[in-house]
Amino acid sequence: MGVLHSEIPSGVGSKGKIRLSPQDERRLLTSGARWAVENGYGEASDLERIESGGYIEGADPELISQKAYERGRAQQGTLGSGNHFLEIQYVDEIYDEKAAQALGLFRDQMTVMIHTGSRGFGHQVCTDFLEVMERAVSKYGIELPDKELACAPFNSPEARDYLAAMRAAANYAWANRQCIMHWAREAFLRVFAATPKDLGMGLIYDVAHNIAKVEDHIVDGKNMKLIVHRKGATRAFPPGHPELPAAYGKTGQPVLIPGDMGRASFVLIGTEKAMQETFGSTCHGAGRMMSRHQAIRRAKGRAIWREMEDKGIIVRSAGRETLAEEMPEAYKDITNVVDVVHNAGISRKVARLRPMGVIKG
Amino acid sequence: MKTFETIDISGDAGINAYGETVEDVFVNAAIGMYSLITDLNGIKEMKEVQVKAESHSLEGLIVSWLNELVFLFDAFGFVGKRIIIKTFGDYRITAVVRGEDFDPDRHERRLLIKAATYHQLSIAEEKGLWTARVIFDI
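Structure tokens for the assembled complex are given below, as produced in the milestone run.
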């Protein structure tokens, strides 16, 4: 855990160790994880197990502001803070042997789960485009019920530009996760003095979970092209879906649902019912039960890291408050949440993962 | 007079900032936001940064102003401790912010603020007291 914690920058004010030329910055924004693999972060075979091959087409680096470049520069290859994490886990329960085998999961196997995204870069893209959208709302005479909302007609230049910038942010995030996964592998290779083959740390799946994508869906019996924005949700495509990587064509899309740092996380697979009922989507996490303040109050006078250690979970965190906010009881019980989506049929349980080591920003 | 207080929002963080003038409320909102990021007692006035922001409404301006400060922190690590507003009007603000660059070894790490948002945003004056409510994405 110490090696992982020192190899992977995390927490408020942490800086990444990747320095890029302007050409590389642009290439990263159009090629995502493919850029990372070309530059020595991970294996080409990883790309076969990342949503859409590790990058989304249609990203335009020209539409990215100087500010977003500046914010992104320091943070490429950083985990972040808040609910972002890296966990070492083990498989303690298999619910679907056949699917688990297809995903390469078995009982008592060790897994690493990484949850992070486009960092300050994506946020700056959002901040920049809020102004554009605000102007678009009055330009196109759109009435919105809440000033927090912003939009533009899909075929307008404003929306086209936004999508091209958002796609660059998605690619930034894929590159970020790929770099962090690479460093996690290196840490394991070093600590266990093993070869990559012996270690067998293959990627199971990598998916964006706050993204708008153009997808084909059936609405009232008709094929339609829709823009599906999943936020607080994740994609759960069924077996046979054309967008799935070859390895999972027959099984369905692996769905990763992280829980809190003390209880469990789950791997599921997407279903046909999700396509019919939820536009190929399912939940993406446990969801909070306490506000951050409530959690901090509840954690006063307690050593959360020690409580975790007593349960056999080693925690490394940069911020004391982060740990209090993220303590297990601040979240709903993931087991109940996953049972809801499993019983509703919008994704199917494959395996349960128990945490052993947690890095929080 | 209380200059700001943090408010309890599930999943996010927010502040109420107060001031006798609209300028004061802009300053106090910024100090309140910085206090979510770190303990300002540990920040020294070692350098000075010029900041400007503009918008087409007062609400838009406070969001742009705070997001400008978020940008300076996120891109360069700069944390402000003292703020002097130079010009304010026509939904434009220029200011000098004094503080120093964040050092994880010396400064307390609190929240990583990603953006000031329009969620439940308000800024208004009542009986000579200005109040602004801002929720941050973290």
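Residues 4-137 of chain B form a domain with the Archease, Possible Chaperone; Chain: A; domain 1 fold (CATH 3.55.10.10). Chain B has a mean pLDDT of 95. Further analysis is deferred to the final report.
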